[in-house]
Write a structure and sequence with these properties.
293 residues, 2 domains, 4-stranded mixed β-sheet, 3-stranded mixed β-sheet, elongated
Amino acid sequence: MATQSKARKDVYAIITEKIMEKLEQGTVPWRKPWADAGIPTNLVSKRPYRGINLMLLAMAGYEYNVFLTSKQLKDIGGSIKPDVKPHLVVYYNYSDKEQEPDEEDTEPKKRAILRYYTVFNIAQCENIPENLIPMFSRDIKPIVACEKVVEGMPHKPKLQHKEQRAYYDPLKDYVNMPKMQSFENSDAYYSTLFHELVHSTGHHSRVNRQGLIEMAEFGSDPYSLEELVAEIGSCYLQSHVGITDELEQSTAYIQGWLSALKNDRRFIFTASTAAQKAVDYILGVQSGEDGKE
């Protein structure tokens, strides 16, 4: 009995701590943070989560509130990304052992024990079949000027929309993008696409940029440099077509850039020069020397 009671209190404590953490951050988790992302729903069963689970999953802050268990993910051929943490879903399990009736109710009742299992958001997963990924009705349309840049890039990599993450694969030379409707707006889609296309210019068949070829470790100066090249290059392209990017960079990237800037005062100049070279390649123009055209 003592063990069951301790386990039950542990689950309650875990949930309470999560709620308190959000409140301490100034977020009131029961004020429908899921309004834009949809009510938390299971990808496979299509059933929405209820009660406190609705609140727990919604306050995780994902773009889309769609979740599934590790078994469900395995059954559909998907996999969990490295170093991600699952989310709790709680439920009551009714024990065969009956609890003592109270003074107001003379009938004995089955004992309710709080249990939990874990789920993952689709953003934490890979290789989910495209036809299973829900699309939300956002009226996002292609931008003609941006499409001209993409289509006009010489010897461009293959562009596919098969996974819910944006990346460039330098070994297979392709860019993967989430579908346009997955983004908040068209500007966000193209700024992300431009970022990945700048990465792709580092391929040996294009400008042969060392930072991409070496496949540097995350957080290292070469990795931070390559990411900054892609970020600056994307900004140059956005300026070229007249769009803006209001997406915030992750703390990890920012810290990496700050560290590199402190260690090398030429870092930003190296990055901006490489970014300009990448943009010139994408736009099909000849690079000038020392900033002159």
